[in-house]
Protein 1
Amino acid sequence: MNHEKNHPQPPKPPTPNIFTIAPNIPPEALLVQACETLAALNVMTTDLAFELEGAHRQKLLASQQLIVLGELLIDRLLDTLSFPHAQALP
């Protein structure tokens, strides 16, 4: 006798997500938002780096360079991709 058939386990609740992205946001808007997020992170890491000294400062400045690289990559995508249904966000 299959006990699970007679008494199925209730489904597990989904893992709660604190942050979600609405599914209907256009790709161009997602890329723009990602670029703006990286720009803000760039400013924060640069400001913090100049409050530090030595190896900690160097590590943070290296992280800042990676952030800028991410910004440049997204900017290049925005410049080269075509978004036929591009819309401004409300």
Protein 2
Amino acid sequence: MNPKIVLSSTSQLIDQSLKLQITGLKSNQQVTIQAEMQDDVKRTWHSFASFIANHEGKIDLDKTAPKEGSFTNCDPNGLLWSMQIKDSNTHFPPCKNEPSI
């Protein structure tokens, strides 16, 4: 067994689907994928999804729905749009809608 993560591109536009596959797994092996990023105000965002490899030992985010995680349907961009703020005590910065004088 020699697991390998295959990402079709390291640079893509926001409206393009993420092409991510994991190969070289055992048949029916469970794998959890996590994504994490920090925004410009230093908040950490994260998401995760657990998948079961197919009979070929492969997980393809285009074709495989997670068994559990921050999203539930088959979606190649699910790890991106389902991110939540890691520290639940962190709030969005205040919106400044004060009138100009």
Protein 3
Amino acid sequence: MRRPALCLAIACAALLSLPAAVSVTAVAHAAQISRDSVDWQAAPVRLLMVEAKGCIYCAAWNREIGPGYPKSAEGKAAPLLVTDIDGPWPDGVVLDRRPTITPTFILLQNGDEVARLEGYPGDQFFYPLIDDMLSKAGLQAADMREDG
């Protein structure tokens, strides 16, 4: 009787072990992005938001940050791509590991993961954390802020 349980445990362990880099290729899904591909030359740095249906933290981000993000310095430095945790995934994306938490924000440079924020820390902490991620990519969103 223990043999099927052991086989199931081994199968689960094998499924959960992921390679160091996961190449994810599929159709892009985001506002103002072609469904056929992502134009990495037009905007080489993107912020990928991985969300899930029914995720209350995704809904909070969409309510608190989403409307202003495209107009923010961070949104101009890293336009938003949005995908469901179950896909479809943007074309040509290479991740360090598959997201398991929603929302997950992944900073991509030419399709490669540069930095990651797992979870939504709230409106007071989101932008400083994204600024840190942009700094890691060699960008400064603060330099893009308009005086006013």
Protein 4
Amino acid sequence: MDLDEEVVVHDLVNAIIEHSQRARVKAMEMVNDGGDTPPHVAASRGFAKICKWIIGTDKERIYLVSQRNKHGENPLIGAAINWKKQAFAYLSNLSDHNAPLQDLVQDNGDTILHCAIMREYFGFFLIPIFSSFSSLYIFLVDY
């Protein structure tokens, strides 16, 4: 996505939010056939800026980060399994790298670590998972 397209998306997100005038913005909760909301799509494609615009600079719509699609994935998991490091970093930073365990595990029981191994995403990606998410580390040790 180039800069001109980003500006259009930014303006569209702002227009939707201004039109809604509510704490919960229904347009941001709408799902596609896969159950993905706009934050799912933005995160899985690596658009960290768009995630930030949707969630809000003051985290006004942070509840969107916990919504799951038909595969049991929230936007954080979607960013991780699609190897979108910037979106993953932004979304994990929303919770000060202390995401609740349920946000790190798919409905089928797979963790972000399972997803990384299955897709062979080795290297510096696994290190931030262990250092940033102590709950995941504890979960894996207790497993």
